[in-house]
Amino acid sequence: MTFMEYLRGVVIDKARDRERMRMGRWAQRRVRGGGGVPTEPAPTVFITDAQDLGANVISFNFSDAVDPSGSMVLTGLQVNGQNPTGVNFVGGPTVELTFPGPVGAGDPWVLATQPPWLLTRVIVPEDGTVASP
Fold it and tell me: Where are the domains of the chain?
């Protein structure tokens, strides 16, 4: 092997080493800002009152207008331990819920989870008592 061949080999080896080092640093670099799940703003809508309308129907008034989601899963909000069997969006902040059994003034209501039938996010948990009309 001549001196020139030796130098050529050293230069080639050094170039390979530099490339490996560069890739190593690149592969080990820290990625900034990645990860995490974007969070939604906290809900601000809450139930202001619940009124007995008779015939097992309770009217719930919210602090702001609410939108229906179209879901027929009627859970999340109970009166006297009963889930509603029907929901009627009257408009704006008012929703009327129909229950399978007797419910009325003085019965406790509880909003334990976000109702699937309600698109607007509401503050949970909440509870209260149904008022007379």
Answer: 47-129
